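Please fill in the sequence for the structure shown.

STRUCTURE ENCODING:
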């Protein structure tokens, strides 16, 4: 398990399925490294008159820029073609070369949201196919014991315990800026320890994806 200040580069992009994922799963990492050039892509809810403005307000507080798409996010979780998601990502990226990419885990962060899983696969495949380039790629590393408890850091992942002040800032973004109720899933989940599986080799990341994204590094 790794802990502490875990970033060493400056040009970073976060690619997530929904507005709030960037804050919930890695907002503390962004806040702690506010001098980095953070760009955030949310692949859904860009046409949501309530969530979209909240996303951009959060980005200002996070000292980040970003953009949104309008991929289907209906409650039915109808599967999307991976090529459609890949195209959406490539169309939204401001460039194709980064120091760090952060995205979802292939198994998602909880049981279960199909869009999280699809976005993870799309990003990992784009890296493997050399359509995007990065020195490092991190996926979120959380699990919920198959709904036994709220999502928490994988024990063997690289962990980043948040200073109390940073966690409170992140919690305020979730409950005040996004407006999720204190008793709701998002507020109760808001991790005090952020966690990642880290890769420097796209081939190893792709093999991990093919084996289900559950290998312990």
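FILLED IN BY: designer on duty
SEQUENCE:
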């Amino acid at each position: 398990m790794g802990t502490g200040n875990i970033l060493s580069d400056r040009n970073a992009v976060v690619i997530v399925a929904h507005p709030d994922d960037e804050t919930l799963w890695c907002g503390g990492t962004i806040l702690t490294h506010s001098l980095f050039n953070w760009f955030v892509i949310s692949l859904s809810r860009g046409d949501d008159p309530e969530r979209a403005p909240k996303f951009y307000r959060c980005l200002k507080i996070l000292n980040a820029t970003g953009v949104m798409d309008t991929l289907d996010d209906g409650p039915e979780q109808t599967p999307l073609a991976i090529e459609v998601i890949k195209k959406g990502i490539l169309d939204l990226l401001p460039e194709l070369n980064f120091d760090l990419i952060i995205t979802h885990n292939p198994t998602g962060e909880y049981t279960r949201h199909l869009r999280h899983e699809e976005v993870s696969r799309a990003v990992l495949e784009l890296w493997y196919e050399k359509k995007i380039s990065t020195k490092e790629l991190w996926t979120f590393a959380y699990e919920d014991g198959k709904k036994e408890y709220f999502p928490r850091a994988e024990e063997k992942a690289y962990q980043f315990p948040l200073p109390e002040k940073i966690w409170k800032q992140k919690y305020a973004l979730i409950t005040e800026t996004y407006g999720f109720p204190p008793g709701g899933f998002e507020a109760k989940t808001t991790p005090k320890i952020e966690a990642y599986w880290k890769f420097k080799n796209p081939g190893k990341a792709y093999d991990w994806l093919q084996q289900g994204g559950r290998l312990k590094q």
